[in-house]
Amino acid sequence: MNMHAQPANDSGATTLEDRLAQAARFVRMHSIASIYHAGSGHPGGAMSSADLFACLYGAEMNVWPRGVDDPGRDRFVLSKGHAAPALYAVGAYYGFCDRKDSLNLRKLNSPFQGHPHVLDLPWVETSTGSLGQGISVAIGMAIGLRLQNNPARVYTMLGDGELQEGEVWEAAMSAAHHKLGTLTAVIDYNKLQSDASNDVIMRLEPLADKWRAFGWDVQEIDGHDIAAILAAFRHAGETDLPSVIIAHTIKGKGVPYMENIPAWHGSVKFTRAQADEALEALGASAEEMKELLDV
Amino acid sequence: MSSPALIASNGDSLREAFGKALSAMADEFPKLVVLDADIAGGTGVHHFRKSHPERFVQFGIAEQNMMAAAGGMAAVGLMPVVTTFAVFCLRAIEQARLSLCYARRNAKIVASHPGLDVGPDGGSAQALEDLACFRAIPGMTVISPADATEMALATRAILQFDGPVYMRTGRSPSPRIFGDDHVFGIGKGQIIRQGDDLTIIACGAEVARALAAADLLLRDGISARVVNMATIKPIDSELVARCSRDTGAIVTAEDHNIHGGLGGAVAEALAATTPCPVEFVGVKDVFGASGEPEELAHHYEIAAPHIAAAAKRVLQRK
After folding, report:
1. Cα B105 from Cα B95, distance rounded (Å)
2. Is A295 exposed, middle or buried (0-12, 13-18, 19+ CB in 10 A)?
3. How confident is the model over B246-265, as pLDDT tens digits?
4. Strand ranges, E, within B97-149
5. Is B56 on the interface with A (CB under 8 A)?
6. Cis peptide preceding A267, ω within 30 of 0
7. Does B69 contact A143 at a Cβ distance shorter than 8 Å?
8. Active site residue B63
9. What order of strands is seen across the sheet that includes strand A217-222?
10. B181 burial level (CB within 10 Å; 0-12, 13-18, 19+)
11. B311/B15 Cα distance (integer angstroms)
């Protein structure tokens, strides 16, 4: 069995790359809209990770909305939990949650909390939001699945600033030690964190060398090149080592006034004019603007 | 060539009782997996490593990763038991909070080396804060059994229980208190000695000392009831209230800081039900130090004579 999530509407795109580009565009627009409605949230990392999310849910992972309890499904853990709006958006696009409900972000009694919570939304697999823990949870899943002879793969997405947490390197060591070939970690390497660039706050480089030294298969790609993302996932599936994909991305990608500006890491509040401008930059139609912003 | 004697495997300690029980019960609980951070010899799970190596997972000296990984194992249907020293559980408490309790995983944390019972390793190793810290996490059950018999029963109980549990074992050889007819239920305290003038409510290593204190008090004509309160959370409020009504005065005794542990839990229960004078026996908001456990119990005033003295103080407040 190899099932993938299918979008409700892929706007007539023909090739896989085009369909995933459409999904990524939706992730960006929906994230801007939900953060606008919430009055707070982290847009920069949602924009930088949108193409990665689209490829994971739209092509790479063996997950589908009616299979959220299926033991054979692949598992995804959002270690950088503050990218929740992008996770909810990709979930909405591929039918794991409702497109309109998931605009109700960070509100009392909404299951779409500021960071993912598995008791509210089973399909997010676990609760995250404290950096460093998600990769460890993913490792526990990979070990646990192997102990039960379950071949499902485990994916996790980390932020770059997150790599400053010591737990990440405890986890990196243990994944290699336990030879977790079913584990793929993706780093949304947008170079910016809450207050400033990684280089100013705490240098990460040489990053690929660090992962290699810890015993991982390492790939560096352009995290906005869908063909490159898909190829990297294919390779990760073929190696026996735990695999890390260092995806070079642009924080705020797709919204010119946001790109590479640390202040948009968030948590920020959008004005209506800023939300309009962002959606226009992402090529939203009048109908999409209304659907996403006038709810 | 001679090998050093491993202190860990000597004596009738709670950690050894736990390790043996876990190994003996493993076949009944096929989803059980045991996680270790390079101290299996100290936590008692060397028994499990020997009997069930395929279900023993080594994480090295990296407790944060181990604790959160347990959440992942539980998420895919296993029942992980995280084992380390109590003080290192504190290091990974945020992982226990988010990846175990907030996500409501069926995972167990079993901590050896709690309190002054650690002895010679000294103040850095003596966790006197763990009951308070873990008790404050929503959904966490907190247990501290009193002897090897109860430890085996509690081990079975936590494996049968669905939800996160923090359980203390103990490092040092501990006296047997209970016979083979002893029963253990999560959330249930027990009157283990009848008395009318006051009640001593104790857990863990302090239960044996509470019984000794009751003997001392009897010489002065004071009749002390003793309660074994092995579950600190959820506290047996009904029993606490009954003891307050019956005896009108309470002393709590624990190998832990006087703040936030058993004493705190009992005081909260009393305040909400049937308030009465309370004296707290525990370490008085200071760190421990090297020494043998009995020496330390006297130095930090949690030994039987100190419990008896607290009983006399509380009687004056009745």
Report:
1. 12
2. exposed
3. 999 999 999 999 999 999 99
4. 108-112, 141-143
5. no
6. yes
7. yes
8. yes
9. A75-78, A154-159, A183-189, A243-248, A217-222
10. exposed
11. 30
| Amino acid (one-letter) located at B162 | D
Q: Note the pTM of the prediction, 2 decimals.
A: 0.96
A1 pLDDT above the threshold of 50:
no
* Closest A-chain CA to B75: A141
Measured CA to CA, the distance from residue B168 to residue B151 in angstroms comes to 9
**Interface touch B95/A77, C-beta < 8 Å:** no
Inter-residue contact B256 to B128 (CB < 8 Å): yes
CA angle centred on B264, ends B263 and B267, rounded to 5°: 85
| A173–B95 C-beta distance less than 8 A | no
Tokens 């990296």 — which residue? Answer: B62
**Residue A285: per-residue pLDDT:** 95
List, for residues A264-292, the tens digit of each pLDDT value. Answer: 877 789 999 999 999 999 999 999 999 99
Q: Is B250 helix (H, G, I), strand (E, B) or coil?
A: strand
Contacts of A127 in chain B (CB under 8 A): 98-99, 102-103
| Secondary structure of B175-229 as H, E, C letters | CCCCCCCCCCCCCCCEEEECCCCEEEEECCCHHHHHHHHHHHHHHCCCCEEEEEC
| Residue appearing with tokens 């167990």 | B108
B39 SS3 class:
coil
Minimum Cα–Cα distance from B79: chain A residue: A144
Kindly tell me the burial class for residue A203, based on how many C-beta atoms sit within 10 Å of its own C-beta (0-12, 13-18, 19 or more).
Answer: exposed
Q: Is the pLDDT of residue B10 over 50?
A: no
Please tell me the total number of residues recorded for chain B in this structure: 318
Measured distance CA(B307)–CA(B61) in Å, rounded: 38
> Of the listed B16, B28, B54, B63, which one is catalytic?
B63
What is residue B191's predicted lDDT score, i.e. its pLDDT? 98
Q: Which residue has the tokens 């190994």?
A: B23
- On average, the pLDDT of chain B sits at 96
State residue A149's pLDDT score.
Answer: 98
ipTM of the complex: 0.96
